[in-house]
Write a structure and sequence with these properties.
mainly alpha
């Protein structure tokens, strides 16, 4: 098969072969033998992989795979005529992974074992059953028979492979039993199937590691971008370049299945996401500063608070539409049997979304407020020093710490909640999609309703962030406390709606607080730090939640701790909106008015004393 010219028929044949499932090694070997004979070659057994004394993987190769060793050609003391060459480096192979979950007996009837642990943590077979079909009625009969054998002692918990008929039967016969799932999709995410050197990682773990490496490697580039955002005159080109790279590598990701290529891909995507978010955050800061440019004193504070919260809340809410659209499209395409094609189409769609961002960048050029004659520092050290000026503003550092903790807590809750819904609760994939859509779209209702309430109660960005942390604290605490209980779909939906609001609040007002702490003309440098720290917090939250996918309680506990630390930082970390505005130089007018007022009072007192002396 020519890798550059693959017909539709060859593609369909490929997916027909690789989608086969076998319950025994002999069955897989027989299938591949028949296929090889039809294609004109023979096969031989190659590598085998065992786990816990059980064979789980076998590799079959073409009998002509490899080459004869060179030493066989250079032997001078050969006593007999060499055999004809039989190996020519053929790459045909088939790797079989044995599925031991859905066994059948010799009559092809479903075979259901009941396996558990005794008080010594040793595996015990409680019994086995054979049913005529995989319907709810058959499974109910089986479960009732098991109860009779166990003297009506209901098990505390049970783990199944995700069969929905079995799930409904368990709910009816064992209503008080904690039912967990070991679905194939969940296992593909959590199984240590990726081999890196001599170690093995799960897809979740490899994704977290790739993001961590990518975020660390793009840091030197961001110091240069920060300087160009504030001192350059072509900020739109930076946005266009970032979105172009994101679009290009999204389009390419469907072609690659090599593990190391994913790391290369993530490196560019991380840079694109951070830079694009920094540009948009800087533009938001310039808009807020422009709307409050003609005010001073208390009027500036009120005008800036109202404009910033309205813009940031509405931008966050509208961003949820794109996330929900991507989730729905990915679910639809990845349901296809040829998932590689589905992934390719998803990548094209992602690239088109990025292309819209390119068009947006063409029409939203916001040049720096600095004069074009401003000296331009060409060397790396000068640009690095400029990007590090944020260290002079303690209020900005405190807001960055709060941004990191909020991003960590919200991503930890989202990832652990999703994995718990897939692997710990009997939820169909379509219901997980519905849960995601509710999570992304509910802020369209909750966040706009929150803005007038904030104006009425005169809550600044710090108090609104405290509200978001308190909600996240409640959600993570409930998840940890009720981790061993049987969750219903209604419980998960309520938690998702509440947490989506908390996520929107923390994202919106964390950005506002940092922009309040950024001096005029340095919004770009501060925005780069905001985007980088937020991405770093999300990456660590994802890594913590995916490190123990079967232990949701630990992930919820980590999110609880992050939310609690966020509250501590905002209350006791000397972080305030007024303090940030004053330190950044936004309230010079208020200080001048105050001094003028004090001077006026002094002059009035002198005049009064003069008049008194005159009267005397």
């Amino acid at each position: 098969m020519d890798a550059h010219h693959v017909s539709i028929e060859e593609t369909e044949e490929y997916y027909t072969v690789v989608s086969q499932t076998f319950t025994s090694e002999e069955q897989g070997f027989e299938f591949y033998n028949r296929y090889a004979k039809a294609k004109g070659f023979s096969v031989r057994k190659a590598n085998v992989k065992n786990k816990g004394g059980i064979r789980i993987q076998r590799l079959y190769m073409c009998s002509k795979e490899g080459y004869r060793s060179l030493k066989n050609f250079e032997r001078s003391n050969r006593k007999r005529k060499p055999r004809a060459l039989s190996r020519c480096g053929c790459d045909a192979q088939l790797q079989i992974e044995l599925n031991m979950e859905n066994r059948v007996n010799k009559y092809n009837l479903p075979f259901v074992p009941f396996i558990g642990l005794n008080h010594h943590r040793s595996t015990v077979v409680f019994g086995v059953g054979i049913v005529s079909d995989e319907t709810v009625a058959s499974y109910k009969w089986l479960l009732h028979s098991f109860l009779e054998a166990m003297h009506q002692n209901h098990p505390r918990s049970v783990i199944t492979d995700g069969d929905h008929a079995m799930a409904r039967a368990i709910l009816q016969v064992w209503p008080n039993t904690d039912h967990r799932l070991a679905t194939s999709k969940y296992q593909r995410l959590t199984r240590y199937s990726i081999e890196i050197s001599s170690s093995h990682m799960s897809p979740l773990g490899w994704s977290a590691l790739s993001w961590a490496i990518g975020i660390l490697l793009v840091a030197p580039l961001l110091t240069q971008v920060a300087h160009h955002l504030d001192r350059g005159q072509y900020q739109s080109l930076i946005l266009i370049a970032a979105t172009s790279f994101g679009s290009f590598f999204c389009l390419l990701t469907g072609f690659f299945k090599t593990v190391w290529v994913f790391l290369f891909y993530i490196l560019f995507i991380a840079a694109s996401i951070i830079i694009a978010e920094a540009v948009h955050t800087r533009n938001l800061g310039l808009m807020i500063r422009g709307l409050a440019a003609h005010d001073s004193g208390k009027h500036l504070v009120l005008r800036r608070r109202a404009a910033a919260s309205q813009l940031s809340l509405y931008c966050t809410a509208i961003g949820g539409i794109g996330a929900a659209l991507m989730a729905a499209f990915m679910y639809h395409m990845l349901r296809r049997t040829d998932q590689l094609t589905g992934l390719w189409v998803v990548s094209i769609f992602s690239g088109l979304i990025w292309f819209i961002g390119i068009c947006h960048g063409l029409f939203t050029n916001r040049p720096s407020s600095s004069s074009p004659t401003t000296a331009f520092e060409p060397n790396f050290i000068s640009k690095l020093k400029y990007s590090m000026t944020i260290g002079r503003y303690p209020q900005a550092i405190g807001s960055l710490v709060a941004v990191f903790l909020s991003s960590f807590a919200t991503m930890c809750i989202f990832t652990s909640g999703t994995l718990y819904a897939i692997g710990g609760v009997c939820i169909k994939p379509v219901l997980v999609l519905a849960l995601w859509i509710l999570y992304f779209l509910f802020p369209l209702i909750s966040l706009p309703l929150l803005h007038p309430i904030q104006i009425i109660i005169r809550a600044d960005a710090v108090r609104m962030q405290l509200l978001g942390f308190i909600i996240a604290l409640f959600v993570s605490g409930a998840g940890f406390y009720f981790k061993s209980h049987r969750w219903r779909a209604a419980h998960i939906i309520i938690i998702a709606l509440v947490q989506s609001t908390a996520n929107g609040i923390l994202y919106s007002f964390g950005r506002i607080l940092l922009l309040d702490a950024s001096p005029p003309g340095k919004e770009g440098a501060f925005a780069i730090w905001y985007a980088y720290v937020r991405c770093m917090g999300a990456m660590i939250g994802f890594a913590v939640a995916s490190a123990g996918p079967g232990r949701a309680g630990g992930s919820f506990a980590a999110a609880f701790l992050g939310s609690f630390l966020g509250i501590i930082v905002l209350i006791f970390g000397n972080v305030s909106n007024i303090g940030a505005l004053k330190a950044a130089g936004h309230l010079k007018g208020m200080e001048d008015d105050k001094r003028m007022g004090e001077k006026g009072e002094g002059m009035s007192a002198v005049a009064d004393s003069g008049e008194s002396r005159g009267r005397v």
